[in-house]
Each structure stands twice: as structure tokens, then as C-alpha cells.
Design goal:
Chain lengths: 165, 165
DNA sequence: GTCTTTACGTCAGTCATGTTGACATATATC
DNA sequence: GATATATGTCAACATGACTGACGTAAAGAC
């Protein structure tokens, strides 16, 4: 570290700004996951179950391999969690129409209810943050977050067209 | 769900916007932690070690209970990880000056080197995202992220005074 | 109609990281 | 001297990740 850390040194400003970003992400993620975790514990589930429920709710009829791609975990890790959710009636599997090897995943009513209960807290957190920050800040937030995400997954967040606001 | 989901229904827009926020946070965190995780694996360490190294590097001389407050884990969880880092020469402990029960934590040279190696990738990710998004977007990002963080921890991110940009 | 690939599941074992509860020690404080 | 605090430690446990190997059914290629 050869940088001299004084308030007038732009290298220090930059370093400080970058570290604040790192910490914002850490604290936001920590607090963002804490509420759902507490609810999940009542069901004997963990954060991994939440992720599965969330993405299946978001993409009804998605395949197991779609889910593996999103979560970036091994199929063994997924299969335990997914198996529990199917067995306990939160998720259903049905064979694909074109490709019957696939198992298309969907939430049951019970699964939808839990998804809503879990995500509601997180939506409320975002709603508050967006409201307090304002529309312009939300655009900035989106831009920076997209830049943090690996290029391969940015296409999951389409730019909003004229219908959007 | 009684909302009718059409592009002209503001409730749908809001729901979609909130879900995008949730997903941005998930993907950003997933990708943000992946690179350091790979480096840590070479040392036989995990993400928990990174968090300890990061915050001790950021706050030299911090106490164990400071660290517990930030990480929100139990002291047993911390003590295993911290013990390894001390034993392997990445962190030193020395008694507090006023209160000799405390063990003030600091990175050794070895610890500083690892911290830099790990955080460098994350800083680079933020630097790229900030550069592409622009200064105004960064301000928006900060505002929204602060709003996501529990009120108790927002004071960790002081507003920048006139010296700041 | 075989052959290969793909989608998915499963078994066995391991590791990292979190938990609770109880207890120990040194120091600070009233 | 009694109590509270900062820290560490032991034992036991759960979750969720991993690797590697093997199995099955269906799709796709030749």
C-alpha cells in the first residue's frame, strides 16, 4: 500500500468509496435475509428452500436444470432441498410436454402461500427503500447492481421500454 | 392475488419492480462472493474467514464483541474461525489498554496481504460497476442500499461532507 | 434400431458454518 | 466482596454446500 491516505488524495476517496460499496452490499444482504430466515425456521426450512420457492414461483414450469443454473449449486445440493419441498407439498413436478425427461416445477397453493409470506417482507423492505430514495435513485441502483452481476446474467433484467414509467 | 397483471396496471409495475430488486440483490451477492470464495478455498478457508479478515482490516484494533455485533453470529461460530486465523498467523490479538479483558484484533502482514488479494477482486467489480453507471447512479445506489439496511447500522455510512466530491 | 447424449435422481462421505446450552477465567465495576 | 462483563471453550447438533460414482428414462443421431 503506497497510497497516502489523506482526505485530499483522490486515490483514498476512491478506495473509501469502493469499500463503502462492499459494506453496503454485506449489510443489505445480511438484513435482507434475516426476516425470511426466521419464518423459514418455523417450517424447519432454511435459506436454500426459500431460494427454490422464490424462483419456482417466479418462473412456473421451470426445469430442474434451469434452477441449477440460477442457483449455481450442484444437483445433489438442490435435490435434497427440492425433494423435501415436493414431499411436503409445496412444489409439484410434472413431465415436460416436448421432453418428458424434464420435470417442470410449480408451486402448489401451499407453496404459493409460503412464497408470499416470505417474499412479502422483502418486498416491503424494497418498497420502503425505493420510496425513501426516489425514482431517480432507483434507476441508479439498478444500473450499479447490473454492473456487479456477471455479464451472463444481465439479460435476466431487460431494460424497461416506454411502457415502463 | 387479486391484482390483474397487465402492463397498464400500476400495481403490477410495482410488484415487478420490487421483484427485480430482490433478484438484483440475489445475483449481485452470488457473483460478488464467488471470486473470493475460490481464492479462500486454496487456503482452506471459507467465506466466514473472509468476513473476519475484511472487518479487522477495516477496523484495526476492534474488539471481539465489535465483530460479533457486525457479523450477527454467535461467539462460538466466530471463535472457531477467529482461532484458526490467529493460529495460522493472519491476525494478532493484544489486550485492551483501558480494559484488559478485551482482545484487540489486528491483521498481521500476512493477513493484510490476504485481505488485499481477496478484496481486490471485489473492489475491481465495484470500480467497473461505478464507472459504467456514473456518479449520479452511484448516489442512487447508496441511497437505496442504505434504505435496505436496518436502521441501527445506517450510522456506519456517514453522509459525505463537502470534501467528498 | 442401436448408440450416445441428456435430464434427472440417488447413495455415500465430507466439510464449512451456523446453532444452543453450559461452564471457566480474568478483569472491571459497584 | 459481590456482581457484571469480555472472552474463550466444550459438547452436540443442523443446514447446506461439496465430490465422485452409479442408475434410469427419454431424446436425438446415425
Amino acid at each position: 500500500m503506497t497510497d497516502v491516505k489523506t482526505p485530499t488524495n483522490p486515490l483514498f476517496l476512491r478506495e473509501e468509496e469502493l469499500r463503502q460499496g462492499i459494506e453496503l452490499l454485506f449489510f443489505a444482504y445480511r438484513d435482507f435475509t434475516a426476516e425470511p430466515d426466521a419464518i423459514l425456521a418455523e417450517y424447519g426450512f432454511g435459506r436454500a428452500h426459500h431460494r427454490v420457492i422464490y424462483f419456482v414461483g417466479r418462473n412456473p414450469g421451470m426445469t430442474v436444470s434451469d434452477l441449477l443454473t440460477i442457483l449455481r449449486i450442484t444437483k445433489q445440493s438442490l435435490s435434497r432441498v427440492l425433494g423435501q419441498l415436493v414431499e411436503e407439498g409445496f412444489i409439484t413436478q410434472r413431465p415436460g410436454l416436448q421432453d418428458r425427461r424434464q420435470r417442470l416445477l410449480e408451486l402448489t397453493e401451499k407453496g404459493t402461500a409460503l412464497e408470499r409470506q416470505l417474499t412479502e417482507r422483502q418486498r416491503a423492505r424494497f418498497a420502503g427503500a425505493y420510496r425513501d430514495a426516489g425514482a431517480e435513485a432507483v434507476e441508479g441502483f439498478r444500473k450499479v447492481m447490473l454492473g456487479l452481476i456477471d455479464e451472463a446474467d444481465r439479460a435476466r433484467f431487460p431494460l424497461r421500454g416506454p411502457g415502463w414509467r
